[in-house]
Amino acid sequence: MDRRLARIHPVAGYEDIKDCDVVVEAVFERMDVKKPVFAELDRVMNKDAFLFSNTSALDMDDLASVTSRPEKVAGTHFFSPANVMKLLEVVRPKAASPETLMTAMAMGRRIGKISAMAGNTDGFVANRSRAPFNSEMVILLEEGCLPEQVDKVMIDFGYPMGPFAVGDLAGLDIGAEGRKRRALANPDYRKLPIADKLVEMGRFGQKTGAGWYRYEKGDRTPHPDPEVAAIIKQVATEMGVPQKEFTDREILCRLLFSSVNEACRILEEGKAYRTSDVDVMWLHGFGFPRYRGGLFFWADGIGVREVYNQIASWHQQYGERWAPSKLLRDLAESGTSFRDAKPAPFA
Amino acid sequence: MSDKSVVRLEKDGDIGVIIVNYPPVNALGPGVADGIIACLNQGNADPSIKAMVLMGDGRSFIAGADIRGFGTGRKRPPLGERTYDVMDRSAKPVVAAIHGYALGGGLENAMGCHYRIAVPSAKVGLPEVLIGILPGGGGTQRLPRLAGPQTALEMIVSGRHVPAPEALKLGILDEVLPEGANLREAAVAKARAVADIRPLPRVRDREAKADPGIFDAMRKSIARRARNQKAPYNCILAVEAACTLPFEEGMKREQELFMELENADEAKGLRYAFFAEREVAKLPDLPPGVPAADFSKPAVVGAGTMGGGIAMSFADFGYDVLIMDASEEGLNRGMERIRNNYATSVKRGSLA
What we know:
The structure holds 2 protein chains of 2 kinds.
Chain A: H1 2-6, E1 8-11, E2 22-25, H2 31-44, E3 50-53, H3 60-64, E4 73-78, E5 87-92, H4 98-110, E6 114-119, H5 126-142, H6 147-157, H7 163-170, H8 172-185, H9 193-200, H10 226-239, H11 248-268, H12 275-286, H13 295-302, H14 304-318, H15 326-334
Parallel strand pairs in A: 2-3, 3-4, 5-6
Antiparallel strand pairs in A: 4-5
Chain B: E1 7-12, E2 15-20, H1 32-45, E3 51-56, H2 83-89, E4 94-98, E5 101-103, H3 105-112, E6 115-118, E7 123-125, H4 139-147, H5 149-158, E8 162-163, H6 164-169, E9 175-176, H7 183-194, H8 213-222, H9 231-244, H10 247-262, H11 265-279, E10 298-301, H12 305-316, E11 321-324, H13 328-348
């Protein structure tokens, strides 16, 4: 421990790091905070130094543009906790040189990560492909599921933790901010009133002793909370959502198919190289069970046509958020597996 | 044997040195096992050879199986006709000389030998479980006999790589050479020193005795981590067989348990993940041959939770890293968090 700690040297100012050959910026995740930092780094750093940003969603082209060396800028998205999680998503701005991209990928490998290339799209590849899953799990509650029911299905599937318990661990306030921003920007944004209500009540997750579950003092075990069940019921009644019983299989497919569809869209836009890259990201960014190969490998086990048909039928039932991506439709029509899909050239 | 062969027999005086040459890491690709068998037979038939050495050319001993052949209907030689069987029947001693990796089929071949020596940087292990199968070349039967059932269970169920000095303590190796020693010379000397010792010490002739409780204890300890998986449980069953059945029957049991796994969805998913993780490094639309720049002085700006974790990642892999924060308070809090994270790892036993 002491040996490792001794390798981390705290310094107070930009002047102290000017001779470093690679910088990873990890300041607060807001463009107006990151831009001045990048401008300053560009000014002080040796002209050969690479400037990488640990961002989970911001536009890397925009950030690179404040420097005089956009060819030496790339995104390096670490997953939390950064010293534990193995995925490094390398985000590729338009101006980045091949050397910069190779260096960012190699840097990840040298520090024990698995580096995967992602295009510069909102949420990049890992989080963008995961986002519909995160919405769908809350929408399931409106229709009659409970958090513990969904979590059990996903744990049985092989995840180390259920997604609601993970939400409580990360903090529910974080997602709420993002939803507010997106709702303002897009009038058609699908709101998640149950999640918003919990946050309004101060239920931020483990750190406040209550979130999707309740927690006993000094213990991280999630306990199902009748208060949450009551809120769900109340919101569902207000929204007039018909209630139904769900099979485990339905819950699993609702969550994962929504992500398969979005990941197809990412590939058809040329924001990732291969379906197997998405799989690697799900294994090492989100704890997808390794013996199931990854999101697309698992979906291939079900079959492209069956996945497409189910998504098309949910499209009829639920509307636009389930519109099948073009790539998915093409694959289903030609009977091509996800594994053999040819994504668009990297854009 | 022609020089182009993937396995060749050279003579150092009265010692036959069998050298595997299947770059880059001497995986058990096409022709390797047959080549080893041919050389063992040749060495046994040659009256001027008293003992033999098995080693690898280039970067490694036999690193392991050739995974690309798995699940493709490849032919596996029947029991009794594999390299290990030929070693067991050998009238002359064979010394495994290990550098680099001896994993999976590599360690299984080494355990088929009568003696095992290694350089200090070598690593051994039976990582088959990580691709959803079990060591199907006698590994589950020989390792418990060599290192004891508890060690064998732990190694085979976790699949971890064991460094040579530890492998020596565990009884897997007979000798670890001093730093910088010449492996081939040492192995030839060892072969010469043991050439006349009879009976030949065969791992298969040893006995593996276990407290039957250890198998249930292991099943219990992996229950959460290994749910939905079969390979770890079959690994346990195979080691259990090594402790309850005669060697030949244990080998048959190992085969049965292996066959249940190779083409199961679990093994397919794990093999796929293994290759996907190699594919992901390729950036096919970049001009070929662009090297990554070397770096030696990383810096992290921002000492929050993420910045601290990133700095720890650099430090954990041997880099000196500067961490900067605009506020002195932020920097102090960040360093405090890093200290606490490391202290937690020490408490959990994952860091010393």
